[in-house]
Amino acid sequence: MTLFIMINQLISHQVLSETKKNASKSLRRRLFLDPKTVESKDNEANFPYVDDFANLRYAAFGTSRTFGVGTNDRISETYPSLLSMGKADNYAIRATGPEYPAFCLYSMIGDNHYDVIILEYESYVQSVSQKCVDIRMLVQRLRNRFPAAIILFLQDFLPMNYKHKSNSLPLRDWKLPDGTPGRYKLRDPSNIALLKDDEWEVVENEGICDVEDLAREFNATLMTIDRPSTIRETFHAMRHYYIDDMTHWTPQGHMYIAEHIHKKLLEIPSYENNSQVKPWPEKDRCEWWFESGKTQFESSSQMKPFGVNKFAYEFSEDGYVKIVNSIGSPAQIFVQYMITYPEQKYFNATVSLRNSVEVPAENEVKLWTSLSGAGAMIHISKLSEQIGIIEGNESFLYIRPQNDHPDGNLWPFRIIGILMVPVGFGDKIAKAQIKLGSYLAENSGDGFM
Question: What pTM was estimated for this model as a whole?
Answer without folding.
Answer: 0.79
